[in-house]
Write a structure and sequence with these properties.
The complex is a heterodimer of chains A (216) and B (1010). Chain A has 216 residues and is mainly alpha-helical. Chain A is built from ten helices and one strand; from the N terminus they run H-H-H-H-H-H-E-H-H-H-H. In chain A, helix 5 packs across helix 6. Chain A is extended, with a radius of gyration of 25 Å. Chain B is of the alpha/beta class and 1010 residues long. In chain B, helix 5 runs parallel beside helix 16, helix 6 packs across helix 11 and helix 9 runs parallel beside helix 11. Chain B has a seven-stranded mixed sheet, with helices on both faces. A four-stranded parallel sheet of chain B has the order 13-12-11-14. A four-stranded mixed sheet of chain B has the order 22-24-23-27. The chains are: A mainly alpha (216), B alpha/beta (1010). Chains A and B meet through helix 5 and strand 1 of A and strand 2 and helix 29 of B. Strand 1 of chain A pairs antiparallel with strand 2 of chain B.
Chain lengths: 216, 1010
């Protein structure tokens, strides 16, 4: 009677074992990796908005401060998405016949809001508060990047918990004077971390890392 | 565990005052040994076994991997025109008022982007003082009830409000020719000045029409008692805090009668050792007030008058109050000694004592209480009388309030009946025959919030707006008015009582806002409004504050009233009264002697009142403050009576009186009066929704045809069937250790030093973490002496923290989700025990046993000492719950959210994560409120103020028994309480170092009754 398994079977068996073990580990590693690469965090995604709003033009050409539109960033959890009325503060006078703004005018006359697409998504169990950061010297650019150079808003930071904690554990290199909070180009002379330490004392910056700081 | 002289639950102590929670536990002599985990605690969720769960897990992981690439992007939807005063993501708060038996309870309601989520008391309102009760807390749930009525319907034709208004207008015009002789209104008792104006206008237009007021458990007897004593139907206003000795004649004044929230606050302030009052309660059923009493004298409701007369006779005979001599009658029976002691105590505290009578007691008892207060010199000191601001129809008992209308209906003398009272077909005594005569009325118009029996029988059905959607006004007992302002536009098509009555007054097109506002303009003495603005200004909403200086001077006053929740006008002075003792004596003589036999007492339910909150799931699942029964009612009777009748708890019994029968479960309640059966009303309605249908029986058929709502002649016999009662009291027991402590004031001194064994440092091999350097060290103190056990904290916590309702089946498996429970311990004999109520939520141990056992670090400690529960890490091992000695962790056994209606989703507090199935949860000390306070304080560079971070339970507590704050601030209230001589730690011997400290309850018994 011939052998049930040929000598080759040993090799196949070993290969299958390796594939199974590596596959299991690899799947976990791949998922963990996926959550960390820009593709997984959504950093590379190009997002089309209903209105072609160009931050480059508004920030660089018109020198409009972030807070002109994002009105509640200093006093509320949400920075605030401008209302149609706010857009029309200017655009009832300038570019008031531009076809690019058809939807904005339609929104005003119909009373239907403009459905912007959210770019910076945090999980539902994260309670982020803009005012807590802006009032302690964390500038817009630290998380949102060079918005003044973006044709369409994209996510530049991974927005995962490790990234949050990096700053909560060592905020100093990311602090700036409150006068420069919305500046896209501010750079200090000298050691930024050293300045950050001084600002932290001045603004009483004490980031916490307890879970309930962000999760409730 | 060292043995202490203190009475400790589960231990034989020097005082032998062992505490127990259920009769089974008392009879067994020890808490059941194996009850740490409830039956079913280890069961897997049904419907989905482990195998199928794993299969689904595999499948969903495979599918989920694909789906994850395509998570739909959320939309950001800004305002087109920003609403004035609304900052997205920042909640606002608006003052308004809810009606409690027609009177205002001032409220402040939290609103997120125009969406009310949480109700709190208004600190400046005299009937709230910042506190709320469980019912007021739960009202916000009704707003989002998917089963509420919507739209307007006439004989199966759906109408728009415009069409309905036209039909109502035509109907009204048709009644003009006979001056409304065949037009009748049946309304809820109400203090609303606007409704009073509308009634007057309607009666001017239809002089022969009539308004009757009906609610099943009104205050008619109290006002009738004042009429007997003083000649006019006045409201008695009790200054509970000014009284050193209080005698309650079946008055549940801490939970139901009068202004319970104000009474609770004032009473609690007098329960601290330095300033103790003494409370005697004579009652049949065990009430919240009875639980707070120093001496609870149990007697049938019918015997209360006899006891009161015995006290009066003692006061007259021995203490020189001759005025009471014709009213008293010497005591007979078991309470003679108590009557003498009570009288002596009252006489010692002349001008500082108080006698209160319960709403269910006949007018003679109220009149006698008034006479006793008068003789004791309490008038103007602890009790004042005020002209009643509530419209109560003819007042008095059932017959005088409803009898005339019932007769007219029977005789076919009514063509149009407008009903705004809650479900009279269910609540009116069957003898009046409303069920038969009401459907015969040609035009019956019913304004109701939900489908009920009366709505079903009506020709014309109008959906009622929730008070958070409606304009209106109400007055408090002392006359203070509040404008009821809406927080949200009506979620469904509905209308208000103001609009409905306005249609009959011929001003229906004005709308409630105009009517209320113009009424107050006239009342405040402002001239007519300036002519309406034209153009854009006219289009602006009334809430639009971007209009600069208003053209109308009244506007500023109005805005002031709305934001304060109070109309600041001179409150009317108390009435001056003169007692007519002769009439009181005649009234007492007219009360028939109590009949022998089993007494049936139909009482308003602690949660549903007369049944109007029957569809409110929060209130249904809220355990009754005394019996801890959820979801349903039961016939409550004393252990001795139950033995005599051969009935045990959970037995189904048939109760018959006067030819009417009801069938329902019995529940043996320690401390209930013998030969008396308490029947909470409001359950088992003929037309019910999904919530009401769960359980309960209708007790109204046993109610006597006229007041008082109790009478002898009840027959009870077991049917032989059993009913499973979902009672939470036996759940989560703490294995008989030092838990709820109570001590007599006279023994407090010697007990205090022994309390040292229940606080302070415990030997430990771990060096305790040092929190003294932190800026904040959060802690809580619960004063059992102040706590009255009403349970408002439980529902407040539910509303604040998105806690699901689980249903009767799940409560039976002890899977209720309330983060904060109020334990009620009895002490003494089952026949006549005393009780201690103890609110218990997570105590935030510094050395938390739950944290050591979590395999995934889902429960950890914060730098400020909070025991944090991280939902997104939790994998549901439940080890933490098993290791928690306080049994305060709650596990989501099922997906309690999966099937929730869309309208209920917008009720959720957006500041608190909605937990999924398989996740553990527990009290967080309302961390979202701490963080909110922290961020707003740090944004402007200051520390969190002393009372800035207040958890929902502490905010709701009418008695201010729960105090929260920073233990690292030596001046904070909570620090002072942690250092109090009465402070002790729960299960101190375990070395958990809880952040919640308890203060021993102090009792002030009369040594003469020892």
């Amino acid at each position: 009677m011939s052998a049930l398994f040929t000598p080759r079977a040993n090799g196949i068996f070993k290969a299958v074992l390796v594939i199974l073990v590596a596959g299991a580990g690899g799947t976990v590693a791949a998922l963990m990796g996926y959550a960390r690469v820009p593709y997984g965090t959504g950093q590379q995604e190009q997002i089309q908005q209903p209105v072609v709003f160009d931050h480059r033009h508004h920030v660089q050409d018109d020198l409009i401060d972030c807070r002109y539109c994002h009105t509640t960033v200093e006093r509320a959890p949400s920075a605030g998405i401008p209302s149609t009325e706010l857009c029309l503060n200017c655009h009832s006078q300038v570019w008031n016949k531009s076809p690019l703004l058809d939807l904005v005018r339609a929104s005003w006359f119909s009373g239907q809001p403009i459905p912007w697409v959210r770019v910076h998504r945090l999980p539902a169990f994260v309670y982020f508060n803009h005012s807590a950061h802006v009032n302690k010297g964390v500038g817009c650019v630290e998380c949102h990047g060079r918005v003044d150079r973006m044709a369409a808003i994209e996510q530049v930071a991974p927005l995962n918990m490790g990234w949050c904690l990096d700053c909560h554990r060592d905020p100093y290199p990311r602090l700036r004077p409150l006068e420069e909070i919305t500046s896209m180009t501010w750079m200090p002379e000298g050691d930024r971390a050293q300045l950050g330490r001084e600002l932290a004392r001045k603004y009483d910056v004490k980031p916490r890392t307890s879970c309930y700081t962000c999760h409730r | 565990m060292p043995s202490l002289g203190l009475p400790i639950y589960g231990q034989q102590s020097g005082l032998d005052a062992r505490r127990w929670r259920t009769l089974e536990e008392h009879d067994a002599g020890a808490p059941p040994a194996s009850r740490e985990f409830q039956p079913g605690a280890d069961l897997a969720p049904e419907g989905l076994g482990r195998r199928s769960f794993l299969q689904l897990l595999g499948a969903s992981a495979a599918l989920g991997g694909l789906a994850a690439c395509q998570v739909p992007r959320e939309k950001l939807v800004p305002y087109v025109r920003p609403a004035a005063g609304v900052v997205p993501s920042v909640p606002g708060a608006y003052a308004t008022a809810a009606s409690d038996r027609g009177y205002a309870v001032g409220l402040v309601v939290t609103s997120w982007e125009g969406r009310p989520t949480k109700i709190e008391g208004n600190r400046d309102h005299p009937a709230s003082l910042g506190g709320t009760d469980a019912i007021r807390q739960a009202l916000v749930l009704d707003l989002y009830d998917p089963a509420r009525l919507a739209g307007f319907r006439h004989d199966r034709r759906d109408l728009s409000w415009g069409a309905a208004l036209a039909e109502l207008g035509a109907l009204a015009r048709a009644h003009e020719k006979d001056q409304g002789a065949r037009l009748r209104f049946l309304v809820e008792p109400t203090s609303s000045p606007t409704l009073a104006d509308l009634r007057a206008r309607i009666l001017r237009r239809f002089p022969r029409a009539r308004f009757d007021a009906w609610s099943a458990f009104g205050e008619g007897q109290a006002r009738e008692g004042a009429r007997v004593a003083f000649g006019r139907p006045l409201d008695a206003v009790h200054a509970v805090g000014a009284a050193d000795v209080i005698l309650s004649l079946e008055s549940d004044f801490l939970a139901h009668d009068g202004d319970p929230l104000r009474h609770g606050r004032e009473f609690a302030a007098r329960r601290e050792p330095a300033n103790l009052n003494r409370l005697y309660v004579a009652e049949a059923g065990f009430t919240v007030t009875g639980g707070a009493a120093d001496h609870r004298l149990r007697m049938r409701s019918a015997d209360v008058l006899g006891f009161a007369r015995a006290v009066a006779a003692e006061l007259a005979g021995r203490h020189g109050l001759g005025a009471l001599a014709p009213l008293g009658a010497p005591a007979a029976g078991p309470h003679a000694k108590a009557a003498a002691a009570v009288a002596a105590d009252l006489a010692r505290a002349r001008g500082r004592s108080l006698v209160l009578a319960g709403a269910a007691q006949p007018a003679a008892v109220h009149a006698l209480a008034a006479a006793m207060n008068d003789a004791l010199g309490n008038g103007g000191k602890t009790v004042t009388y005020r002209e009643s601001v509530v419209f109560d129809g003819a007042g008095g008992g059932v017959r005088s309030r409803l009898g005339a209308l019932a007769t007219e209906l029977r005789d076919g003398a009514v063509d149009t009946l407008v009903v705004t009272a809650w479900n009279p077909l269910h609540t009116a005594p069957a003898e009046l025959g409303l069920r038969e005569s009401f459907p015969e009325v040609r035009s019956s118009i019913v304004l109701a919030y939900r489908e009920d029996e009366t709505v079903r029988a009506a020709r014309f059905r109008l959906a009622q707006a929730h008070f958070l959607e409606a304009w209106g006004d109400l007055r408090a007992r002392d006359g203070t008015a509040t404008i009821v302002q809406p927080l949200v536009a009506p979620l469904v098509e509905c209308t208000t009582e103001v609009d409905l009555l306005a249609a009959f007054a011929g001003v229906g097109q004005l709308g409630a806002y105009r009517i209320v506002r113009d009424g107050w303009r006239a009342r405040a003495g402002f001239g007519p409004p300036p002519p309406p603005a034209a153009g854009r200004e006219a289009a602006a909403s009334p809430a639009d504050t971007n209009r600069g200086v208003p053209r109308d001077p009244f506007e500023l006053r109005w805005e002031e009233w709305l934001s304060a929740g109070l109309v600041r006008e001179g409150a009317p002075a108390p009435a001056t009264v003169a007692l007519d003792a002769e009439r009181v004596a005649r009234a007492i003589a007219a009360v028939p002697a109590p009949a022998a036999g089993l007494e049936a007492r139909v009482v308003p339910d602690a949660r549903l009142l007369d049944g109007r909150h029957s569809e409110n799931a929060w209130l249904r699942e809220f355990p009754d403050p005394v019996t801890k029964l959820t979801w349903e009612n039961a016939a409550l009777l004393s252990p001795a009576t139950a033995r005599r009748l051969g009935i045990a708890s959970g037995d189904e019994v048939e109760l018959a009186r006067g030819g009417r029968k009801v069938v329902g479960p019995a529940l043996v309640v320690p401390g209930h009066a013998d030969d008396s059966v308490t029947l909470p009303a409001g359950y088992g309605q003929r037309v019910q929704g999904a919530v009401g249908r769960v359980a309960g029986f209708d007790a109204y058929p046993l109610r006597p045809a006229d007041d008082p709502p109790f009478a002898a002649g009840l027959e009870a016999r077991p049917t032989g069937r059993r009913v499973l009662l979902a009672i939470t009291q036996g759940h989560f027991t703490m294995e008989g250790r030092a838990i709820a402590l109570a001590e007599d004031a006279s023994r407090l001194g010697e007990a205090a030093h022994r309390l040292d064994e229940l606080r302070g440092a415990q030997p430990t091999i771990h060096a305790p973490a040092d929190y003294s350097k932190e800026e904040y060290r959060w802690g809580m103190a619960i004063d059992l002496s102040r706590c009255i056990g009403c349970g408002a904290c439980t529902v407040a916590c539910q509303a604040e923290n998105n806690i699901p309702v689980v249903g009767k089946d799940q409560v039976l498996r002890s899977r209720e989700m309330h983060w904060l429970r109020v334990d009620r311990y009895y002490e003494g004999s089952p026949e006549d025990p005393r009780s201690v109520s103890q609110p218990l939520a997570c105590v935030h141990c510094e050395a938390a046993p739950c944290e050591y056992v979590c395999p995934v670090n889902a429960t950890v400690h914060s730098d400020e000492g909070l025991n944090e529960m991280v939902y997104n890490r939790c994998v549901g091992t439940r080890y933490c719950s098993n290791n928690c000695p306080y049994k305060v962790r709650r596990f989501n056994y099922l997906d309690y959210r999966g099937t929730v209606a869309p309208s209920l989703k917008i009720l959720q507090n957006p500041d608190v994560t909605v937990r999924a199935r398989g996740v553990m949860e527990k009290c967080t000390y309302c961390t979202q409120r701490i963080e909110r306070a922290r961020i707003s304080a740090r944004n402007v560079g200051r520390k969190i103020g002393p009372d800035e971070a207040v958890p929902a339970c502490a905010q709701a507590c009418p008695a201010e028994a729960i105090v929260f704050g920073n233990l690292n601030d030596p001046a904070s209230r909570v620090s002072r309480l942690h250092g109090d001589a009465r402070r002790y730690d729960l299960l101190h011997e375990l070395g958990t170092r809880p952040r919640t400290a308890y203060l021993v309850k102090v009792r002030n018994p009369n040594p003469e009754l020892a």
